[in-house]
């Protein structure tokens, strides 16, 4: 059972300490030193939870009506709570004045306290449901926060007793004076005078002039940094965009150049093929006296037809070249064995290379320049490779574009010329057969560089 409180520290005594800081509030929203003569007042002044419920309800009421508390409405609410919660009657001043006997003493129970707290909380919820934004935030402030705001408004000269013209004391109650002071403060900062402080305004009003100045300086620095960051980001984006556009342009130019070069190479390649097909047959017809014999045989391993071409070419003074063309890997090599026609038992003398033991001579491909060269020796010192046609586009002696190869060798029996007309009928059969085998091998997935036959 709760005992009636004879005295609760007055609100004014707990508002400010000697240094101006705010003390914690441990009572309700009214002064418990006056008029604590009802069970409801006793409960609110004696129980901290009930006092907190009263503060919450009062704070929501002030925010909902933006005015001083309506005593009539509040008295009606108090009577309703007293009746609903069955609070025991207490002797009044009028009863004592007229000498009426006091009502029978009845204890205040915990059930009474719980009922009062529940009723106040329910009314708080109803009032808060009417509120929005800043008004709702104000209704949830603690008593200490209410007093801090009032104290700041007093210090800044916005809150005073508007009737008696003296400075007011902070009591935590947001009545007409406090609401008007808030509107005056909002006008001073150029904000809309709603009478309710936003979070930002509440932080600002609680700051000292020095803190305000520092805050404004920080805000200016942050704004400057933010603008700088935005400008830097914009500049970086513009640079990235320019770099992207430049990279795209360069890529397009490279692609254009590649296509042009590819088209030029294709045109040049087509031109070389056309030239070979035009000049090759003409040159072969001129060399009708140079005979090329075709030999056919079945490869025992592949059971496919293979060709070899042979030509015997002489300078008429004893130097002879026995030329042989065949398939080997992805090439059509033409090798020549140099002999002394007047005396087969005697060797044929010529200039040799000291590096690869090849034979020094001259070579000309198609209508190209006559160039010194060293014909590599094959197996024997007097057997050399004169030409080697390939079926790809990465060499000077390509099967599709080479229409003749000429070789000049100085021997002990005079100058010997070797002539290979690629468009000779039998030579063309060899080249076509070798290319066919090369393509078949590629389609089979075999190694096109593997040996396809050995010279006969």
Task: Describe the structure in brief.
The chain is of the alpha+beta class. The protein has helices at 11-15, 39-46, 48-65, 71-84, 93-98, 110-129, 133-139, 143-155, 176-188, 199-205, 209-286, 425-444; strands at 293-298, 305-314, 319-325, 331-340, 359-365, 371-375, 377-378, 380-390, 404-411, 414-421. The chain contains twelve helices and ten strands.
Number of helices: 12
What string gives the helices and strands in order?
HHHHHHHHHHHEEEEEEEEEEH
- Sheet with most strands: 6 strands, antiparallel
Total discrete domains: 3
Our Rg estimate from Cα atoms comes to: 58 Å
Q: How large a portion of the residues is in β-strands, by DSSP E?
A: 15-25%
Mean pLDDT: 80
Spatial order of the strands forming the largest sheet: 1-2-3-4-8-7
Low-confidence stretches: 1-23, 448-456
Helix content: 40-55%
- The N- to C-terminal Cα distance equals 129 Å
Textual characterization of the structure:
This protein folds into three domains: 39-206, no CATH class; 209-286; 293-444. It has twelve helices and ten strands. The strands form two sheets. The protein has a six-stranded antiparallel β-sheet, covered by helices on one side. The chain has a four-stranded antiparallel β-sheet with strand order 6-5-9-10. It has helices spanning 11-15, 39-46, 48-65, 71-84, 93-98, 110-129, 133-139, 143-155, 176-188, 199-205, 209-286, 425-444; strands spanning 293-298, 305-314, 319-325, 331-340, 359-365, 371-375, 377-378, 380-390, 404-411, 414-421. A hairpin with a 4-residue loop joins strand 2 and strand 3 (319-325). It has 456 residues and is α+β, with helices and mostly antiparallel strands. Helices cover 46% and strands 16% of the residues. Residues 1-23 and 448-456 have low confidence and may be disordered. It starts with 10 loop residues before the first helix and ends in a 12-residue tail after the last helix.
């Amino acid at each position: 059972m709760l005992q009636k409180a004879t005295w609760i520290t007055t609100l004014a005594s707990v508002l400010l300490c000697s240094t101006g800081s705010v003390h914690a509030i441990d009572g309700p929203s009214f002064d418990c030193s006056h008029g604590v003569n009802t069970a409801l007042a006793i409960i609110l002044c004696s129980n901290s939870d009930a006092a907190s419920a009263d503060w919450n309800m009062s704070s929501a009421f002030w925010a909902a009506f933006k005015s001083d508390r309506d005593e009539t409405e509040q008295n009606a609410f108090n009577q309703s709570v007293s009746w609903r919660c069955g609070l025991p009657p207490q002797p009044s001043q009028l009863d004592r004045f007229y000498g009426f006997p006091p009502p029978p003493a009845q204890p205040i129970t915990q059930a009474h306290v719980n009922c009062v707290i529940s009723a106040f909380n329910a009314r708080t919820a109803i009032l808060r449901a009417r509120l929005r934004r800043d008004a709702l935030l104000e209704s949830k402030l603690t008593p200490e926060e209410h007093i801090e705001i009032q104290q700041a408004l007093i210090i800044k000269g916005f809150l005073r007793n508007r009737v008696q013209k003296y400075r007011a004391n902070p009591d935590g109650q947001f009545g007409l004076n406090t609401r008007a002071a808030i509107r005056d403060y909002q006008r001073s900062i150029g904000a809309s005078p709603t009478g309710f402080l936003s979070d930002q305004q509440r932080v600002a009003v609680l700051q000292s002039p020095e803190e305000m100045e520092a805050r404004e300086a920080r805000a200016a620095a942050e704004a400057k940094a933010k603008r700088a960051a935005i400008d830097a980001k914009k500049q970086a984006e513009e640079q990235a965009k320019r770099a992207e556009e430049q990279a795209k342009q360069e890529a397009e130019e490279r692609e254009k150049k590649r296509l042009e070069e590819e088209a030029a190479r294709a045109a040049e390649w087509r031109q070389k093929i056309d030239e070979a097909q035009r000049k090759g047959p003409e040159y072969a017809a001129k060399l009708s006296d140079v005979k090329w014999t075709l030999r056919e045989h079945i490869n025992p391993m592949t059971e496919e037809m293979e060709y070899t071409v042979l030509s015997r070419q002489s300078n008429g003074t004893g130097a002879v070249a026995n030329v042989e063309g065949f398939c080997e890997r992805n090439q059509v090599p033409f090798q020549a064995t140099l002999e002394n026609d007047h005396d087969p038992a005697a060797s044929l003398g010529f200039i040799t290379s000291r590096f690869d033991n090849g034979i020094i001579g001259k070579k000309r491909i198609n209508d190209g320049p006559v160039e010194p060269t060293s014909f590599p020796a094959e197996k024997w010192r007097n057997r050399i490779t004169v030409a080697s046609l390939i079926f790809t586009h990465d060499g000077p002696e390509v099967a599709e574009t080479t229409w003749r190869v000429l070789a000049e060798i100085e021997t002990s029996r005079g100058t010997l010329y070797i002539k290979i007309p690629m468009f000779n009928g039998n030579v063309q059969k060899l080249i076509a057969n070798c290319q066919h085998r090369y393509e078949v091998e590629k389609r089979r997935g075999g190694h096109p560089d593997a040996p396809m036959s050995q010279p006969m």
